[in-house]
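Z., the sequence and structure:
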Amino acid sequence: MFSSKLNGIAILKNQHFSKEELLTFAENLSDRPGEIQDKLLHWEFGPVMEMKFDQLAQNYLFSDEVVPFHWDGAFYREPRKLLFFCQESEGNGGETLFVNTELLWNSLADKEKEDCTKVTLTYRTEKKAHYGGEIKVPLVQKHPSNGATILRLAEEVETHLNPVSLEISGIPNADIFYQELRKKLYDPEFMYEHSWQKGDLLICDNFTFLHGRRALGGNLKRSFMRIQIL
């Protein structure tokens, strides 16, 4: 049965794509006119990020650690959709978590919503991978396509591998507020956990959803290509 928390996520199983085929597929998912650079977010390495474990990683995204909830492009340019294509996965570990912040917002009491609208979040991180710097964003935002209210609550990243600090302003008792709202991100009512299998193709709305990752554990072969669609 379809769950409303998955509204904005599409999953296809047993897919086969070369890198070039995946780029063409992703390009066709963009509503923007122009060349491929206008449709897919490009970084220093191009539009395709190879996501896999690196024992010498300087950034936690490529380590075996937990990846806290976040949205992509926050320090650079926010894509509308994210495409993940799993190339390898063995056993448990490295499950990707998606939380539907539109549903979460709609579940809040009036006082909680009022507090949320007062909050500004400041994130800082050193550029050791493809992103870095400082951003300041309101917690409560509107989806650019459908106007729905969404939440931009990336978790603080406490790691020796490229940590991301978080400063909350606008309300008293900010730490208590953050911890209470953070618990809701992991509520099964709003969160979907995807266990990867080779050939999985997953597309999600980068505005409705935040995403994160469980620790890889023994699944160090887990790898996929990720493309960010403008």
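The CA atoms of residues 88 and 202 lie 14 Å apart. The mean pLDDT is 95.

Let me know what you think.
H.
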